[in-house]
């Protein structure tokens, strides 16, 4: 059900953005999802398409960019791709690592067609 509530918040975001820019019809919705965000791609897309169909944006295309996680070690400075949120540094074994990317979930862009 996590993905369904995310899908609903995406649609709310799109509604807000559209209102801010004076309306139009949404052609494409682009979303960035980090691999460590805990969002399941298939479940999310399924939910989003379901929610979109019942919204004013039925027919809008959805594009998802998955982002590979990247972490930096606070001890030796090694940067690596962690497999989990609490991965240790592959070089020195330290757990003082900082996640740089991989947890994002955001609306990247909207392609809107206006009548004017
Ligand atoms: Zn290290």
UniProtKB/TrEMBL annotation:
Annotated GO biological processes are: protein maturation
Write out the entry's keywords from A to Z: Metal-binding, Nickel, Zinc
* Residues involved in Ni(2+) binding: 2
Official protein name in the record: Hydrogenase maturation factor HypA
- Where does the source fall among the domains of life? Bacteria
Single GO term (MF): nickel cation binding
Q: Does the keyword Metal-binding apply?
A: yes
């Amino acid at each position: 059900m996590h993905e369904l509530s995310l899908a609903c918040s995406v649609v709310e975001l799109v509604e807000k953005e559209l209102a801010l820019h004076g309306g139009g019809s949404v052609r494409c919705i682009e979303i960035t999802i980090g691999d460590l965000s805990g969002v399941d791609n298939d479940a999310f897309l399924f939910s989003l398409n379901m929610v979109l169909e019942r919204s004013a944006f039925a027919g809008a295309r959805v594009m998802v960019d998955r982002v590979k996680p990247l972490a930096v070690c606070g001890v030796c400075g090694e940067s690596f791709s962690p497999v989990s949120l609490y991965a240790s540094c592959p070089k020195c074994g330290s757990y003082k690592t900082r996640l740089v990317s991989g947890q994002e979930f955001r609306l990247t862009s909207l392609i809107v067609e206006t009548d004017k």
